[in-house]
Amino acid sequence: MDDRTFRNAMGCFATGVTVIATEVDGEAHGMTANAFMSQSLNPKLVVISLKEDTNMLKRIKESGHFSVNVLSEDQKDLSMIFAGQIKTEEKISFDSLDGKPVLSGALAQVACNVKSEYVEGDHTLVVGQVSAVKLEDGEPLIFSKGQYRTLEKPVPMKN
Prior knowledge:
- About 15% of the residues lie in helices and about 45% in strands.
- By secondary structure, it is α+β, with helices and mostly antiparallel strands.
- The strands form three sheets. The protein has a seven-stranded antiparallel β-sheet.
- The radius of gyration is 16 Å and the shape is globular.
- Its EC number is 1.5.1.-.
- This is Flavin reductase family protein.
């Protein structure tokens, strides 16, 4: 199969949208990613998958920590900025959670310390030990078949 067919097949799986962030030399850096999953409850671990040639992977290796910011449905512009799809001169401000940079308004902010790394294919799987979590109300931003989407509001069930 060709690469496009494979990508199209993988795009059928709807995912949430995250911004992975880290800080190096006092400067916060972020990157949009949807390759994120919960890995373990005890200990609390998550996994992110980053392409080998990304600056974010180099920065996380240097800092030894990262955050995962699960974006809300009203944070599409932030996703596009950190994906390089929208250019802006405006400096994006980060808050801090357990010393890691996080985005205000994200549905979930997950602060992590790097526990281990595994190179598989052209990506590195980075396992993070969760050190802190902050939650907000709202609905998630979804990505599927190359487009941003939102969840339909729940309809109350009739008894």
